[in-house]
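Minutes, project huddle
Topic: does the predicted pose make sense with adenosine-5'-diphosphate bound?
PN asked that the exact inputs be recorded in the minutes so nobody has to dig through chat later. Recorded below.
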Amino acid sequence: MDIQDIKNRFGIIGNSPLLNRAIDIARQVAPTDISVLITGESGSGKEVFSHIIHQLSARKHGPFIAVNCGAIPEGTIDSELFGHEKGSFTGAHEARKGYFEVVNGGTIFLDEVGELPLGTQARLLRILETGEYIRVGSSKVQKTNVRVVAATNVDIYDAVQKGKFREDLYYRLNTVPLRTPALRDRKEDIHLLFRKFIADFTDKYRSPNVQLTEDAQQLLANYPWPGNVRQLKNIAEQVAVLEKERLIDARILQQYLPTDNRNTLPIHVASGGNDDFSERDLLYKVLFDMKKDMVELKKLVVEIIQNGINSRIVEDNSPYINKLYREVDSSTPEQLVPPSTLTIHHSPAAGQNDDFHFHTQEAEEIEEESLSLVEKESDLIKKALKKHKGKRKSAAQELGISERTLYRKIKDLNLN
Ligand SMILES: Nc1ncnc2c1ncn2[C@@H]1O[C@H](COP(=O)(O)OP(=O)(O)O)[C@@H](O)[C@H]1O
Ligand SMILES: [Mg+2]
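Predicted holo structure (tokens), as shared on screen:
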């Protein structure tokens, strides 16, 4: 089967060399019984690749199970994976087969494998080396024949060096490493993916198809996509469901892209070098938009508090307000309004009825607030330093920049 056939069969979109390389590795390693460690950011297609490997292997008619190791409590993970005997722990009323027993003859996908406790890692290593395992509470050695495909979105070698992941297991799993590329590393595929998802979703929801203008395509290409394909898919779905315009420009599209992501802060880019001006300009714009959002939001909160929420909803159908309601629906208030920028004074006297006392003059002050980026930047840095009591390491972490960059900025901005 060639790479294009695999793409068609598994619904994989994209033509970037990094993606093709990953598919090629999957194709070659699939028919062997070798363990594969798939590394890649969240939403970049790790699970899709585990299916490819299983389906193109001799085990394709055998069972396949995906297990999220990070989601199973430490106390029960051994029992889930390897089974247990009746009475082996409180609540073990019946004997139970583990996944490795159930999947005998097939493939198990161990997602977030770096989260496995050390004891479980030892059991896993034994299964990989000999096929042997022991149910919890038993002394009988059993055999199984399972192919392991593991995945991680963190640098697992880091965990090895910290003693949290067994080195021998790491090498055993990582015989053939496979990396699913981040979306930002295959920009050429982004518009392609978006078009495919839009077509799927407009079909599904019977909404009119939409097109992107040139600048909207640019915006998509330059967005950092921390949630990768999953996030892009999600945004395409929102656009398909909510957007009234058929031709979408950057201004409209911008409203669907979350701006509270740390990666989009201009400070972050500045640490990367000076050669990427267009990207930096774009990120500056994002910051401005964020600021604008914040001002609007503050005004809105003041108004709601003064007039009650219903009057506002009925009166205002502006796209901004609609967008805001969508955001409020899908995020916590803390994400929307960092407490440090919006001062709501909770009056202890009114504690019982949960009343908020709000300083309305603030909203007026806000409009006169400067929009200078340099000022904003130094403001943010000061705030971070203050919050972390002058500890530069923690402040840098919070700002999403390196300590070195923070030092430089403190010097450049004369913040000493
Ligand atoms: N290259 C791709 N083309 C089309 N869809 C993809 C591609 N990569 C991932 N997806 C889709 O993105 C979503 C997330 O993929 P998934 O494999 O669950 O990511 P991960 O396991 O790395 O978090 C799924 O809906 C998957 O179908
Ligand atoms: Mg996943």
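Observations noted during the meeting:
- The chain has 21 helices and eleven strands.
- Residues 277-307 form the longest helix (31 residues).
No decisions taken; revisit at the next huddle.
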